[in-house]
Specification:
mainly alpha; Growth Hormone, Chain: A; 228 residues; 10 helices
Length: 228
């Protein structure tokens, strides 16, 4: 890999901020749920289906997309996923009705299903083996910051200016983050794809599946609490 050691921290910062933008975009619906409901003339449970549909797409899409994008250069993949996020979130902000907003939202959250797991997968190729745990934790810090700052910010903007402005801000941040990732990520980062045997070993591991189950229940509880 032809990149200097001094460039690596900047690449990790770009990935961490990318995760913050991704997380804030996921949290923008729970933060603006009341305003979406009132603005589009739908009930709170119906507006909440935006959260459900996005969660299903991200949960099922992450492993599926991992196989589809296995051979992609991660600089291009991560940049394209943020550009997609920005453009589709901007389209959501302009959606005239709930019927048009729902499919646009589902298409937009393809990006979280791609960006977050693939950012974590490529971290191991950006740092030394002894730094991998710390680097992955740092990159995922973006989601933690999004839950602490991103959703309250979205709620404040939604309550003050309207949900469309909150979506618009996420779109702008996504485009800026895409430019940063493109600038800082080196070329040639292609983590090895999981083989069929590796997938079978993963899905057949009881301790790992138990950890995934706990994470899934935690996420269910978190989004239910944040939303309602």
């Amino acid at each position: 890999m032809s990149t200097s050691t001094s460039a690596l921290p900047r690449a990790l910062w770009a990935l961490m901020v990318g995760n913050f933008v991704i997380g804030t975009g996921v949290m923008v619906v729970p933060g603006t749920l009341n305003d979406i409901s009132q603005s589009l003339g739908v009930s709170i449970p119906q507006a909440g289906q935006l959260i459900t549909a996005a969660a299903i797409l991200m949960g099922l899409g992450a492993p599926a997309f991992a196989s589809l994008v296995a051979g992609w250069d991660r600089r291009r993949l991560l940049t394209i996923s943020l550009l997609w996020y920005g453009l589709l979130t901007a389209a959501c902000a302009l959606a005239p009705s709930y019927a048009s907003l729902l499919p646009l939202r589902v298409l937009a959250v393809i990006s979280p299903a791609v960006f977050t797991p693939q950012a974590a997968a490529c971290v191991g190729l950006l740092v030394r083996p002894d730094q991998r745990g710390r680097a992955i934790t740092f990159v995922f810090l973006g989601w933690s910051v999004a839950s602490v700052m991103g959703m309250p910010l979205s709620a404040w903007i939604g309550g003050t200016l309207g949900w469309r402005w909150a979506f618009g801000l996420v779109a702008l941040m996504s485009l800026a983050s895409a430019a940063w990732v493109w600038r800082e990520m080196p070329d040639g980062i292609k983590p090895a794809a999981l083989s069929r045997q590796a997938w079978q070993a993963t899905l057949g591991s009881a301790p790992l599946m138990l950890a995934v189950g706990v994470t899934l229940l935690s996420a269910f509880g978190q989004f239910t609490l944040f939303s309602y």
